[in-house]
Amino acid sequence: MNSLERANYMISSMAKALKDAENVFMGVASYLPFAAIVLAKKRYNPDLKWFTILGYNPMPKHLPLSTVHPWISKYCEAKIQLGEIFDMSARGEIDCVFLAGAQIDEKGNINNSHLIINGRRIQLPGGAGGALLHATAKRPILWQGKHDSRIFVKKVQRITAAGKPYKVVTPLCVFKFDERREKLVVESIHPWVSLEELQKNTGFEVNDAPKTEKPREEEIAIIDEIDPHGIRKIELE
Question: Which residue among 3, 58, 176, 196 is least crowded, i.e. fewest CB within 10 A of its CB?
Answer without folding.
Answer: 196
